[in-house]
Amino acid sequence: MSAERKIFVLCLLVQQFLLLRGAKILTVSFVGGSHYMLMDKISRILQSNGHEVKMFSHFVDLSSDVKNQDVPYSHIVGKTEEKYVQETLRSFRGNITEFFSGRDSLHFNFAIVDQMSHQCKMIFNQSSIINSLKVEAFDIAVIDASNPCTFLLMEKIGKPFIAFFPTYSVNAGQVGIPSPLSYVPFLGTRLTDQMDFFQRVKNVLVYLLFHMAVNEKISSMFNDVIEENFPEGSKPSLSELYKKAELWIYNSDFAIDFPHPLLPHVIYAGGLLSEAPMHVSPELEDFISESGQAGFIIVCFGSMIPSYPVIEMNEGLAKLSQKVIWRYKQSDWPKEVKLAPNVKLMDWIPQNDLLGENLHFIYYYVI
Ligand SMILES: *[C@@H]1O[C@H](CO)[C@@H](O)[C@H](O)[C@H]1NC(C)=O
Ligand SMILES: *[C@@H]1O[C@H](CO)[C@@H](O)[C@H](O)[C@H]1NC(C)=O
């Protein structure tokens, strides 16, 4: 072997075995459904890029879409007792029904957070898992930031972390992203970036109300967990913990958000779950093509909300010139209601394939 070649081989060896080192990464998923699907995808991507990934998950599966599957990373599943599972399902369905029959969405959101704080107590009660995560030498963690408990877990085990938020930047205020109220519409106001004077006044009032009433209340729901699990003198507050993230990643895209300043610790990475579209079934293809130029509409309320009161929506959809594919569990459809002729119900929609690359959608975040 020539000297040059020897040096080349040596360099290759150094590069392969000494310089390249995958990180040890913890991913944390405390919300099921599509949230879990996203954390699963992130874990797979990291694992296939040479990192050693371990997921810690704990949730009650509210949708039956997420099947137990073989995963290429290691996975610790927190314990959920049957009584807790039943109670969570009952309470979630009860609140969803109330929401769809007109109860305000704030009430619904408080109910979800209340559920999360209860779940958090159960998670912190599983001390053998928490202790094992504490001693394991993770380089970094990626957490589902929509459940505040993930931040408390990070504080408990003392690891640096990246916060992944499954929607657009609705929590900008907590993250330190500037949101000038003159052109950034606040969550739930249904305003746009073009506001007249009175709309701006509304935007400011809703913002103040939210920060004085809602934020405080949500934080206070975790006081018990903090009280029980952190020693005197080092009790964290959630608002501080949100600012401890090394990075915030949003499952969003500039195309579906209003203009908004961002800071260097914020990245938009929408569309993690979208794949190259495949052909849909001939039956669906026929249904869609019947509406011709008018196009078709998909109605779907997310993985956790399969069925809900229908009469008004059915009447509304009947007035459209488009064909409508509505994700609705067919066996739950009330027999006495006649389905609008332009509507097709499906238990599951191949959304990725139907929407393909021509996506126009209305995204309405519930609060
Ligand atoms: C809504 O959620 C709360 C909190 O989890 C629960 O106490 C309440 O019973 C639920 N409401 C219904 C109608 O199930
Ligand atoms: C925590 O664990 C203890 C002992 O196993 C049990 O008695 C208690 O009910 C648990 N608390 C929660 C909130 O699950």
UniProtKB/TrEMBL annotation:
PANTHER family: EG:EG0003.4 PROTEIN-RELATED (PTHR48043), UDP-GLUCURONOSYLTRANSFERASE 3A2 (PTHR48043:SF24). It comes from Hymenochirus boettgeri (Congo dwarf clawed frog). InterPro entries: UDP-glycosyltransferase, UDP_glucos_trans. It catalyses: glucuronate acceptor + UDP-alpha-D-glucuronate = acceptor beta-D-glucuronoside + UDP + H(+). Gene3D superfamilies: Glycogen Phosphorylase B. Its EC number is 2.4.1.17. It is a single-pass membrane protein. GO terms for molecular function: glucuronosyltransferase activity. The keyword Hydrolase does not apply. It is found in: Membrane. This is glucuronosyltransferase.
